[in-house]
Amino acid sequence: MMDDTQLDTLVARNPLDGHAGAFAAVSNSVTQIRSLPLARHLNLRLAADEVHLVATELGQALPTRACTFSSSEVASVVWLGPDEWLVIDTSTDPATRGGPGLEERLRRVLAGTRAAIVDQSGQRVSVLVTGDAAGLLAKGTAIDMHPDAFPDGSALQSHLAQTIVVLLARERGAIEILVRSSFARYLADWLVDAASDPAAND
């Protein structure tokens, strides 16, 4: 006999949803912090002679220079290694340009190649720091985040407050922090504490 019990639809939840108030409380004219909506993340492995195959679907050529990323209306693509990229779906129309369709289209154009695509959507969440992002993050990393040293389009994997993160230099000095979901609340608490330090506003 078939069980008629229906499972509730699983809904992805951002582990930082509960930090919106704390982020708002410490944000000011100098530095602002907010979590970004959940996005689809795909880890992409490609050989050098296959890189050109995905340009149309991603709306851009893959970045091939170390420690950089590029963006289009479809996705932000982060260079992780000579044959590895992180594809972050940035589509505003999931029904036509992003969502599950992005992975499906990539798999279609890469069929028969040595490429590998792994959905890592639940692995990381993003926090955006604007204003004096470099000054705030300097409290947790020895890396120079000043726009002169870390200009727009720069990307790197490093440690921030003893947590492994991916840092993306966005426009006008903003820095996006990609952190593993299991460490997200810890890092969020650290950011709030760091922003609450009076020295952060000097």
UniProtKB/TrEMBL annotation:
GO terms for molecular function: sarcosine oxidase activity. It is an enzyme of class 1 (oxidoreductase). The keyword Metal-binding does not apply. Pfam families: SoxG. It comes from Cryobacterium roopkundense. Its EC number is 1.5.3.1. Keywords: Oxidoreductase. This is Sarcosine oxidase subunit gamma.
